[in-house]
Amino acid sequence: MNMVDIVVYILCIGLAWWALQAFRFDVLLKNPKGAQAIMLQILLSIGLGHLVASFFIQYLGLSMGFGKMF
User: Fold this and answer.
1) Which end of the chain is more exposed for a tag (fewer CB within 10 A), N or C?
2) pLDDT, tens digit (0-9, with 9 covering 90-100), for 1-30
3) Sign, CA torsion 23/29/30/36
4) Residue 48: how many CB atoms within 10 A of its CB?
5) Cβ density class 32-46: b for 16+ within 10 Å, e for less
6) Are 31 and 37 contacting, i.e. CB atoms less than 8 angstroms apart?
């Protein structure tokens, strides 16, 4: 189950990175091509990916445990 969690986290962080590429950071940031802007994108993708992955992992765990209740 831990390997599934790791794969889901990596996949969700990658999807979040891909989705954030569509966002126009040049409107909000002083230097959108600088190291700080890239670090902001990385941190945002990790945070967003973590939230999405946690949702799916928790949903998977609850749905697997739901069958044991009956």
Assistant:
1) C
2) 789 999 999 999 999 999 999 988 888 888
3) negative
4) 17
5) eeeeebeebbeebbe
6) yes
